[in-house]
User: What shape does this take?
Amino acid sequence: MTGTTLDYHRDSPSLRVVEALAETTDTDPLELEPLYHAIDPEALDRLFQADPNGHASVQFEYASHAIEVRSDGTVAVDGTVHEST
Assistant: This one.
């Protein structure tokens, strides 16, 4: 799988999740259910910002879609990697 690296000064994993799901579902990000219904966005951001060179991933369900966030900045929705915009 190819991916992209996050610029933690501009992006956050939680923001990328919302953007990727909005792209997948062709939905305005403001129309999606709040991410905090699925996972604590602040905890998700802290997890990957604490050790950006680590090797970790988090998988969870959000709005009936399988989400994976990896420490290399990759965000996948239902197995499809979404590039940073």
Q: What stands out?
A: Residues 13-82 form one domain.
